[in-house]
# Entry
Amino acid sequence: MKVYKVKVNGKVYEVELESVTESNATIATPTKAPTVEKVAPAPVAQTASTNGGAKLNAPMAGTILDVKVKVGDSVNVGDVVCILEAMKLENEVVADCAGVIQSIAVSKGDTVQNGQLLVVIG
# Structure
């Protein structure tokens, strides 16, 4: 065993490591590869098509700091619709489709949950 001192973020830790010898042995691999569940990254904003337009939902829980659009405004893909604060970070919620703002379901200061409706774009 060898003892090493490691400093992490200003704090010193003692680590013991066991030395091993090299070997030319082969490692047997299973015949069937294990399945790995793939998880898609969280989208900036989720949409679901409705009769009246596309819903723009909150990507995470937080507080609405500002609403950048009004009913009747035209938006393009990537335009900032509102600012959502979550965990002391300001996140821009952007339109993921082009259209006209049909309705706004939140206002400045509202607390929203993940997936809650923010605006409808038609």
Summary: The mean pLDDT is 81. The CA atoms of residues 71 and 101 lie 5 Å apart. The two ends are 68 Å apart (CA to CA). Residues 46-121 form a domain with the OB fold (Dihydrolipoamide Acetyltransferase, E2P) fold (CATH 2.40.50.100).
